[in-house]
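Lab notebook, bench 4. The sequencing result for the construct came back, and we need a structural model before the next group meeting so we can plan mutations. Quick request posted to the team channel:

Model the 3D structure of this chain.
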Amino acid sequence: MALMLASGVWWRPRSIAWQLAIVALAGFAILSWTTGYNYWSNRYLSVWYALATVASVCALWEYRGRAALWLRGAFFGVAGASAFAAPLLSVNRRPADLVAAVRDRDHFETRNYPVPGVARDQLRDLRRTHPTQRVYFVVSDASLVLPILEDRQLDAIIVTRTNFLSQLAAGRVKAGDFVIEDNASSAARLIPIRQVYAPDIFAKGDIRTMVIYQVAR
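Done. Here's the predicted structure in token form:
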């Protein structure tokens, strides 16, 4: 961050480090202007941070002298500490979590947002006793779709609320089919049969819910 900010006032156009830093700074500026802050900003910021890190390495190796040696040592110290701190202090990247990702993939992939995993287990149980009934997942902009979508046991149909209501009114949704959505629904013919609960790891003490419905005859 310091190198990016310095590149804006300390012009060295022939320096590779400056060129990379100024591009990273421009990337942050464009992102801030067009997107601003949202829940998914980190994925957009990471590429510019990576570019600025490369610029920092180039800057450290462009100069000679005792100060440069100390700065390189400090850089390697921070990089080494971060390499150990990232997995050890992470919610889901510790060595034990890597083992869990292989041994219990279903549980691990919904660890950050457990309620879809609990709903998926409940739907699997319902499909075992009602194998001919279809599963509809009524989604919103913030729905976690992938764990449900990729499950071959469920073979879920992903629909928006508007699309689902039109299919329901047209009679294309069969009686007995199962429906889930992130929020409680007031649509006709939907009977709530199960409500699943799971903790929200991003909010202490908060519980998230998801309702499973069955279409009435």
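DSSP finds nine helices and five strands in the chain.
Will bring this to the meeting.
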